[in-house]
Amino acid sequence: MELVREKIVLNKHIGREMTQVLLEGDIIVPDIKPDISSVLKSEAEVVISKANPAAGRISYSGKLTVKILYLAKDQGDLVHSISITSPVDDFINMEGVDPSMWIELNTSIAGTEYRIVNDRKLNYRIVSDVVVNVTQNASAQMVKGIDLLPAAQQKTAKLSMSNMVEKKSDEFTIKDELTLPGIRPAIKELLSTNISIASKEVRVNAGRVDISGNLLVTPLYIGTDEDSVIEFAEFEMPFSGAIDVASAKEGNFGDVNLSILESAVTPTPDADGEDRALDIEVIVGADIKISEVQELTILEDAYSIDQSLVMSKESLEYSHLVCRNKNQFNVKETVSIEEGPEILQILTVSGNMRLEETKVVDDKVVVEGIVVADILYVAGSDETPLSNHQAILPVRQVVETRGSRLGMDAVVEQSIDHIGFNMLSSNEVELRFVLNMDATVTQTGKAEYISDIEFTPLAAEQMDQMPSMVVLCVQKNDSLWSIAKKYNASLEELAAINDIESTAELAVGQKLLVVKKVASDEE
């Protein structure tokens, strides 16, 4: 008899580590820019481009980008912008890590602090959360059956396992030219451009992953009109492309995290010679995880009429995919600006979402967090012609996830698809955010599998010691198969002798006649 084996891929979660990094430095105003009077608005972002495992540690590198809008000193309502990029290079000590493992590293801004040192210098202190998850990919050989052994003498079990089969980082470039709407003035000075990714769609095909979505582009600029304070425009740039992933195949799941690695926005003249066009070039980073669901039939137990089977068993932990679901919903909130100056005109609203708690309950994932919204507006104040107000909008959403239960694990990816606003009064604004949430629920299971079997012929003495016939009383947890194995009987004959089906459930106390089966009976 030959063993039939099957190779399986297992993901072993090595560990999770969270730390905070303090990033600080100075921003010097370029010579061509005027002195700083006050900071109007600030943005900070940490983008990690590389994360490499080594023995006992994970090193990572990337960059910090800080953008500042400020009011110029002694120049009334003139607004200017400055930005800097600073390298980020650090490491996290983590026991048990080695170079063969897969790393997933995410960052988020936990806090920012800015201080004007003098008219030409600004000091920043930024705290970034760094979260790293480490996974090891391993393989094992399971025994799924025994050739030439009757199927009735083999007991099998089914396992459904979800495993990551490949992790890859890549990047692609998006280029386009955008033209300002006719109602907007031409560009005198480009202050800043906010670029984000929305409406992401991922499709896994043989050997590649197709990615599509929209770039949301919002430029802020000083217009050529004499009374122009700050102008803005909103664009959607659709994009699509494919990234080669060797192990990808139809039916796999693709989780893709997209980030803006680099961007360049340059005003260019239109046909009339006015700077009304924008050349856009964006480098998008893609962290790709390909997962597959393995439906396995493994050998759980077996017996032979004329041989002793000594089984070697191993234990494993595996992840079982319960549900994946996408959900889109609206968050609407009326924000009152009580301490700041009154609103004359809203220029633009930006925002980002932070998840604070994810809880799995029956058939649902409950997500709680906040949307941090920045409202930039023209103020009714001679001293403060422009102002920025930050509002916190609470978010609580229930995502339907059929089959989920308390104690299971959930990963939720969130994004903002659209931002809308409406000025209700001089101190009230209605904000509207369209949010996407993609939830994946998994359950960790434990199982034993047979890794090897040693066959030994039964000695005549062993066979002689076994009763040739016995009447037994069914005990709790007994099955027809377990009784046949225990008394070296044929399952089919045992069922036939007792006039029952071979798959019948037995009742405690039920009487059965068992006849020993030996190889000589078949000769």
Keyword list:
mainly beta, four-stranded antiparallel β-sheet, 3 helices, elongated, disordered C terminus
Report on the structure:
It is a single chain. This protein is mostly beta strands and 523 residues long. It has 4 domains: 13-135, no CATH class; 149-305, no CATH class; 327-447, no CATH class; 459-522, Roll (Membrane-bound Lytic Murein Transglycosylase D, Chain A). The protein has helices at 460-465, 480-486, 491-497; strands spanning 3-28, 36-54, 57-72, 79-93, 102-118, 121-146, 154-179, 187-205, 208-223, 231-232, 235-244, 253-269, 275-302, 307-336, 343-361, 364-379, 386-400, 409-425, 428-457, 469-473, 511-515. Strands 8, 9, 10 and 11 form a 4-stranded antiparallel sheet that branches. Strands 1-6-5 form a 3-stranded antiparallel sheet, with no helix packed on it. The protein has a 3-stranded antiparallel sheet with strand order 2-3-4, with no helix packed on it. Strand 3 (57-72) and strand 4 form a beta hairpin. The longest helix is centred in the C-terminal third of the chain and has 7 residues, at 480-486. The two termini are 18 Å apart. Mean pLDDT is 90; it is low at 519-523.
| Residue runs with pLDDT of under 50 for 5 or more positions | 519-523
Multimeric state? single chain
Strands, total number: 21
Q: Beta-strand level of the residues, as a percent range?
A: over 45%
Shape: elongated
Mean pLDDT: 90
**Helix content class:** under 10%
Helix segment tally: 3
* Helix/strand structural class: mainly beta
CA-atom Rg in angstroms? 33 Å
What is the helix/strand order?
EEEEEEEEEEEEEEEEEEEHEHHE
Counted up, domains total: 4
End-to-end Cα distance, whole Å, is 18 Å
Sheet of most strands: 4 strands, antiparallel
